[in-house]
Amino acid sequence: MIASVYSGSMRAPSINGQCHPDFAAVQPLLQKQLAKNAGGAALCVYHRGECVVDIWGGERDKQGNPWQENTMAPSFSTTKGVTSTLLHVFADRGEIDYDAPVARYWPEFAQAGKSRITVRQVLCHQAGLYHIRKMVDRADRMLDWEYMVRAIERIEPAHVPGTRAGYHALSYGFIVGELVQRVSGGNFSKLVQTELARPLELDGLYVGAPKNQLGRAAQLMGRGPGSRLSRRLLGYWVQANVASASQLMKRLGIEGDPYSFYDALAPRGMREIDFNTAETLGVAIPAANGLFTARSLARLYAMLAGRGEVDGVRLLGADTVRHATVLQTHPGKHAVIPFDLRWRLGYHGIYTSRGFLDSAFGHFGVGGSGAWADPDRQLAVAVITNGGVKSPLALSTSVVRAAAARA
Questions:
Q1: pTM metric for this prediction
Q2: Is the pLDDT of residue 66 over 50?
């Protein structure tokens, strides 16, 4: 039985919602994290198809207004997991073949030596198309879908596709999103609603949110793209120190290319984009600007944990989920992020204090948001935050422990 939660004091933020007694340890852990950081967060967990944790707390904006039950938060790369799931819906219907060339569905994509790049290579971040800094002259081009599609069509891969993995931090969503639009004939933002949100009755899952929903959006509190720290990492600091960073990586035995990090995450003018504004949240950037509740993300991943079904609603066939979430073969070299992220088809591996979970997959975003599923444990976890949670690692670890101990 799930129990209502309310706890708070003058020193610690209140936590509201419901939590099954078997998962009671996660509530004080969330409260402790919120007490240390400005902002708020929400956590939702499904186990064995049942919602066992649905809690929230902290502040939704700089004016100190409390986080509400229906508050959504900009969740950055967590969006990639939603975007990938949408593609799998069309693959499940036989409309997309993972091993087919992208150009089969999007003929103009074949330009500039890209005719043999497959859907699988895109989903595994092996297409060599992460270098967005070379695709666009300024970052706000990402607000123009058609411009981004044309830019991707014209660009040459940064390396031979399939020879290394390189995290497509910002370009990924436009490639996968345009694929989905080409096979469906629909608009990406609307397809997120018709194919994912409505069938699963999700209360907040948007990539390109309508104006009437923006009042529910939490205000980012000094994290993510646009923050002072991110401007340093994605701009002047990286540019000034990329050579020394390369030397340091070699001394540490880390094989990677700091220049590729800069190319993938720092298009000119990135520091000018404000992910709190209606202008940015109202269009689709399917790798970066999803606006979600934790409840919606957890239910979406509960469907994946249930091998395509949750609460009697089947969105994907079990074989499709199995195929989409098998650990893929990875080349030995890595660009952008200099280590193996254990890619599935659009999802990365999940790490806790117990190490990587062999059967778990999902996607996290800068700033602390993330969601993941583990079919073997029948577990799905989602956390969203506007700055109140530094890292979801401790929360994920606590949830895994609670699930393992549950009778």
A1: 0.92
A2: yes
